Batch of 4 targets.
Target 1
Amino acid sequence: MGKKIGRNDPCPCGSGKKYKKCCLGKDDDPVYSDPINLLQTYKAARKSSRIKQCLYPDHSECSEKIIGAHSIQNNKILKKISDNGEIYMPCPKADNPFLIPTKYGRKEASVFTGFCGYHDKVVFQAIEDNDFAGTEEQIFLYVYRAFAIEYHKKQEALEMEKFLFSKRPSLINANGFESPFTGMHLSISDLNIEKDIFDKALIEKRYDVLTSVIWKFPHFSNFAASGLEAPSKDIDGNQIQDLLNKQQNVGHIFYSVFPENNATYAIIAWAKIYDNLFEPIKKRLQEFTEQERKNYINNTLPITCENIAIKPSAWEKMSEPEKEEFEALFWGLSELAELSGEYIDRTSAPMYDMFSF
């Protein structure tokens, strides 16, 4: 159990003041303590946590306007898998944080305020204006876009936590935790290592910083997704990194899966600095049969990705047990299984098959 927040430590609410001069001894806001107001609290926290920024490292050419940038291409992908301009995503909206899936208009689906209009257009031209050919630049840009939305969301999650602690100071030092933000700070700190790599590659236009495995499936699928994970175990269940070790930098695996023309592509990649860490995973990925590849994607996406777009009519064709299994994985079934010593084999077929959509 870590050290509690000290009187002279920065206040966890993010005010910039010392704890003793801010939230120490302050009463909780009764509105935010009442479970009846849970939805109202969630909406307010979501609104307060919004960040508008351009993640591109050189701001000298930024346009003034931060836009709602699509992390999954709108015209190239979302338009083709939408029904009447609508998409299903497991990412909930503020008005219903427990609804899975949630219906989005394709113009709002996968959107985040992480780039200015200029850099969102210029940086990603190689994948927006050209078919996927598996070039180093294209692979880099798909992975960078997956990184960007996840990095942005973690920053907003930290702001949400600060807001909630400002409304409920009694949660500070609850259970003796070292800091209410330790986990999120460590997560962002680990991603900052990869951000430095991405930033340098963008400035120098040298894209050979990733190790990747590319799969091509010979049909157009009615879903697309991007995300990342920091795996503690390899595909066979062997420990590869300790996520609880604060002295160890945690490596991430990035995913981008998208349909294009008459095919579906899956990019699985990581920064080359983590090659030794993820070599066992790369070896197994390269050995997979076609069916094992599909099984791996089917299991991995709901386990690791919130940013999943699904054609509504395809989702509705799934049986209730299929939907329930997908939702259980999305809500953390694999993490609960791992805590109890069990292991979910991602090469085994789940009941649902996203490739049959």
Target 2
Amino acid sequence: MRGIEAALQVLEQVRAGRFASEALRRIGMKPADAALASSLVYIALRRRELWQEVYGGFLKEGAKGGHKGLPPAVQDALLAGTAGLLELRRFAGGVLVNALLDDLKARSLKRWVPLVNAVLHNVGEEGAKRVEALRRSPALEDRALWAGVPRWSLPAWTRTWQRADLNRLFELLPLPPAAALRPAPGRREELLARLWEAGVEAEPSDLSEAVRLKDTLLPTEVPGFDEGLATMQTEGSMLVADMVRRCYRGGLILDMCCGRGVKAAQILSACPEARLEGWELSEGRHRSALREVRRLGVEGRARLRCGDALKLEPEEAPSLILLDAPCSGSGTWSRKPEAKWRLTWEELDRLAAAQRALLERAFALSAPRGIILYVTCSLLRGENESVMADFFEAHPECAELPARPEGPPFRRGRPWGTYIWPENPWLDGFYCAATMRLS
């Protein structure tokens, strides 16, 4: 399947609820077509409302602002066409537009071809000026639109960050992400050598033991992946797991929401004396976590269970609890852009309630002098400092532990916890707050 046609199929599946990465993996393509499809899908999704605003401005007066009334396939063609014309730097715009029009004809939507052709012609002529005007606008709403921040979420951002911080964040959020690799302990030079030998552009990170790639790769394409030489993981995620290592003082570690087990495996690899129990509600992610600890050879010190973290009981009292709570993922929206368009205020409130319940459960499981590390991949105060404020008010017997030093990429929360900012393509945004139960 060719790249543009595949991109349209992926956008169709994303609309139906699938993740773009999953849909891309399921479509068989040549490498060049896969690269084009992936690029087109992600640039379309990262700033979807921006592209809709741009092409919507070129619709005829009767349809202006009414792009949702267009057939879904026509919406996808306009979305992909606008994003591609304004962001793809090494692909001929005429080829893109012709392919989109051919796809509409193949879908028996020929009557929409003149409209799409006319709108995309105007996008090519005037769209870049409109985008630049939004980027330079003093209005925060315009800059948020340019950055790909959903309109509904802007009040949550303004409650979290001051204007100067928001301006900087809105410059960072549209950056396309690149892959980072975590080498097995002490084997970074070996990993770099094997990557270079395979023709993969890579360099050592200046933030951690990570290796940075110029672009992205599938994990199975990484030299030495199957033998445990490397793990694909963002640098923000690595820094979070490293905080666990710094806090660890012996005993059992409980990972209450262990997901696919990437952080759990990193913790066990970095702490050879540690034992870890991990809980995960999703059966699919639980199976992935089992494969991950086996791949890295740490399964003998890991007990991974599938179930509800609000109900499970650990095999022994944990000395350290990692609560990587479900959240909006606003710090990872560049990497998983479809997630932000599915969120609502109601869902954000539901997530905050779940975070409070899980943190309360972590407190109930903790022992005196036990440590709780509360983590989200969110940059929004309502999921972070507000949750910790309620926790400390309910539990004065808990105290915050000293945070990591300030300075890029770390920023102190107000007043609790520490943020990891998405300062570069290898970092996702995170929030971390470490507490100790004193009695």
Target 3
Amino acid sequence: MSTYIAPSQIAQRQLAYFEGKNVLVAGEAEDLFPVELAKHCNSVTVFTTNYSYFRQLERYSEIKRIFDVELSEETGSDMILLYWPKAKAEAEYLLTMLLSKLGKDTEICVVGENRSGVKSIEKMFKPFGPINKYDSARRCSFYWGQATSEAPEFNLNDWYKTYSLNISGNELTIKSLPGVFSHGQLDVGSQLLIDSLPSLKGKVLDFGCGAGVLGAVMATQNPNIELEMCDISAFAIASSRETLKANGLQGNVFASDIYSDTNDDYDFIVSNPPFHSGLDTSYVAAETLLDKAPKHLKRTGELYIVANSFLKYQPILQTAFSDYNTINKTNKFAIYHAQK
């Protein structure tokens, strides 16, 4: 039985397309198919906005890895293998950005689950050239096309969505790239968490910072904190940095695969943790966040998180912390507070 995700399995059936090519893999890739692909083509570069996936490929020297929001180095690639992402806006972003970097005559193979809306590539690719579906299996589709027209020059600033928030009388500017959670608006859960936070001091970690809303609010309301913000997504990291900059705020924003790159001396960890991986529900990051939190907090450190009411985080909190309680609740969300 294949250990590859379904989109990789359909790409594996079409290895002839990649023979002799310099392939740039991008999008929602999450397995080791690029390692196999490297045996069938000249070179493989993986461009990913997912820090966990970037780390997963670290031990494979045959793969060139790039973790960023924009391709800013020469790869020599003449073909893109695009794993269709869950957000259509992210697919449009990647397509426009990569084709502007690689230029005319670039070939492209697109793979994705049908439920993810991969069929949208037919219309989305039209300005660049022809594209057609050549295979269908495991509820996935495989497309091949070629850019016969030059893509317009790419400018990252054009892709930020900017919106304003008024929190407790403070007007904040939020900058958000496609694919970032709560892109273009404040979600209800984050609002409830903001309303539930006490005054903060010392070293504060905004875990899963997204567009930087929580971090910006905390830094505005508690100007003396030492703010750190982390996320697994390069889109989120870029967005949070721009949000801080737009509001004249200071903070250290960095990539981390759960706690891989964080410190262990926080006074507060505050989070609206993710519970999706691609199109599917996944609790691994949130559960690890809760379970390992005490190791990353100071002796009297505190954790504040918001969770959908249906998520069963209480047993994990009970095991990880001796003291936790629900401090706010609606019919959809709960705010949990735990102290080391």
Target 4
Amino acid sequence: MKRWILRLYAPLFLSGFLVTAIVWVGHRHGDPLWLLAFLAVAIAFSFAAERAWPYDPAFNHGQGDGVRDALHALVNEGLNLLSIAAVPLLAAIIPWRVWPAQWPFALQVLLAIIAADLGITLVHYASHRIGWLWRLHAVHHSVTRMYGFNGLMKHPLHQAAEAVGGVLPLLLLGLPMPVAAVLAFAIAIQLLLQHSNVDMHPGMLGRVMAWAPLHRFHHMRYGTAGDVNFGLFLTVWDHLLGTAFDAPDYRLGQRDLGIGSQPDYPRGYAGQLSAPFRELPHGDVPELPEGLRRR
């Protein structure tokens, strides 16, 4: 029974909450604000599942990071809410409508997810190669345990950069506000799955979807060894970029996570907001364990 739960957890979690959002917003024309309540339910479910079927029980123990991560989530989801509320204002000043609004709502959401996934993945890829973007993105990489809430932990300016790369082009094409709301919700759900501490084993689907078993390797502390598995939803972008990586026999632990050259990276919320604009001490990059070397 447990084997099937761990195999089906990720696809059912994503599809269940996404279908609920599509039906509520797209077919019942419900208030998109209720998606915040659905997200709260998803977060609670994620926490419960991580305690029932943990990948690493140590990841469930706080490191004084609970309040900080909650603040990151509240601020970033609040900014998402404001950006969604601004969609009608943007639509009022755009004279063209290229978006296929005549398509079924679910297909519009799928198109938005794939297009945004490509844009966000490219910004993510650039964030590991362009200094000022990395300084913003480093906040997310400072975590030393993997659990669902980590996905919502970002510097707000880096979240804005991802939105410019992944969502703004869609808005300029005339993305409707209801589709934008479900897209933002889908991204939050996927981020919970990417960083989950559930010991999921999604099988073949796990090679297509960028869930935790692959994304954990992106958080390796061993310098550029972590420049892998950039995709948000799909792994196809990493195969095209040549950055796909898996080491199925290696179980990552707290010793493997964080920023190896900056073990003393600020841990408080205020310190992380200011960190990209300060000179922080750097040390040597730790040696990559044999089990994580790319072949």
